[in-house]
Specification:
The chain contains 7 helices and no strands. The chain is mostly helical.
Length: 152
């Protein structure tokens, strides 16, 4: 292990004796071989743990413990609740619904994307659009009052 990983472990789990035996042995062997990390451990202990070694232990009053225990509930469930038999059926239905919705979206996309291309390339529609455009340019509209009002 590198020094950065060792120092991270020294700041967290090593000082609290929370490492596994094998990891603790690895850290100890590194500390024996690396004077910088050994010095770092001394600094950590002097700053983080030494001030609390001789501090008195605080014991909460018994009524606080009683309230904590009553709020937690002392009875554990006898067994985990069984899954409802419909849950598997419900999951199958949800998967089927999701797949059918995805298939419908795909079909709709393919249908409308193909349809849009055929509208543009249809010669009758292109001719009708160009005739309508020409009529607008030449001023040969429908002659309605609304058209006259909007065009003038």
């Amino acid at each position: 292990m590198d020094c950065n990983k060792i120092r991270e472990l020294l700041l967290t789990d090593y000082v609290d004796n929370e490492l596994t035996r094998s990891l603790n042995a690895d850290v100890d062997s590194h500390l024996a071989a690396c004077p910088q990390c050994a010095e770092f451990l001394k600094k950590v202990k002097s700053a983080a743990t030494a001030p609390f070694e001789h501090a008195p232990r605080a014991t909460p009053p018994p009524e606080i413990w009683n309230r904590i225990q009553s709020s937690l509930g002392t009875t554990a469930p006898a067994h985990l609740p069984r899954r409802h038999w419909l849950s598997a059926t419900h999951r199958i239905r949800m998967v089927a619904f999701s797949l059918s919705a995805a298939a419908m979206l795909l079909v709709s996309f393919l249908y409308f994307s193909d349809r849009r291309d055929s509208v543009v390339s249809d010669p009758v529609l292109v001719a009708a659009a160009s005739y309508d455009w020409q009529a607008d340019i030449e001023g040969n509209g429908f002659g309605t009052a609304v058209e006259e009002y909007l065009l003038n």
